[in-house]
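DUF4886 domain-containing protein: structure tokens wanted.
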Amino acid sequence: MVFNTTDFQLRKLSLTIVFFLLLFVSRIAVSQTASPPASGAKKNEKPLHLFLIGNSFSGNAAKYLRELSEEGGHGLIIGRAELGGCSLQRHWELVEAAEANPEDPKGKAYNGKSLKMLLSEGTWDVVTLQQYSMLSGDVETYRPYAKKLYDYIKTLQPSARIVFHQTWAYRSDADGFGQIAAGKLAQSEKEMWENSRAAYHTIARELGAAVIPVGDAFWRLSSDKKWRYQKDAGFDFEKPQPPHLPNQTHSLHVGYSWNNAKLAFDSHHASAAGCYLGSLVWYGFLFNESPVKLTFVPEGVPADFAAQVRKTAWSTVKAVGKGVEK
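Answer:
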């Protein structure tokens, strides 16, 4: 065999080129697999800047909004001014304290910041307001604070659209319901929903604002013969034994849970299914788009119920409002 130096060098060069080409291609494939393109915002669509002024109920209702927005291809930036159990009056009193003395800690109740500071951190497309659920059925508790907050927000964010988040009624087996007039409480979930709905829409009409109909969506499911929650008549509430819980199928509220061997009950706040319903209503309202085909479902929500929740959310939005124009 004759050894040809030139042939050897050419073969070596060819193998080197092939090696680097293969390496380059493999790196591209790994990069695409490891970092898939983000769904992000739809082409040429600016992210929606949403600011929530509320309490734990706004936190519940928007809990899964990011996941839904991402799947739907909508960019979303959320700002928050939320305090547990905070009413419209309380939010306004904090504004007054901050305006009287910007250095007064009393006015900086939102993690060391005032509402003015938070609203001034960006340009917000939509700002939401809501009443404390216990007062939501009494329209007089909204006045004059809803208008004062509305006008205040407009001075800081003149181009923002201000809308009301209609909160929901307590579960049918609650040990008490919200106020519907001074010294008078609702006697049922239905009565609380009816009065709360009327109050939200009355104030919204006075201010020319729209309503995110989460409370209506809750009631649609709560009053549906097939999908409503029904109290477990076979459970021994007098002598409960941990870790057993009553059947709470289709509950939109947290309901019963065990806490240090004590049976706890929360008939006010939303369960995973309730948070899902609220977020779906917000999605449909904010983007004026059906969430029915979205596939994200929180853990613990059965597939058949989740499908009904999506349908209910969108039918409620279509029935009540046209969504937010961007």
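Strands lie at 48-54, 76-82, 126-129, 161-165, 179-181, 184-185, 210-212, 253-259, 262-270. The mean pLDDT is 89.

Cheers.
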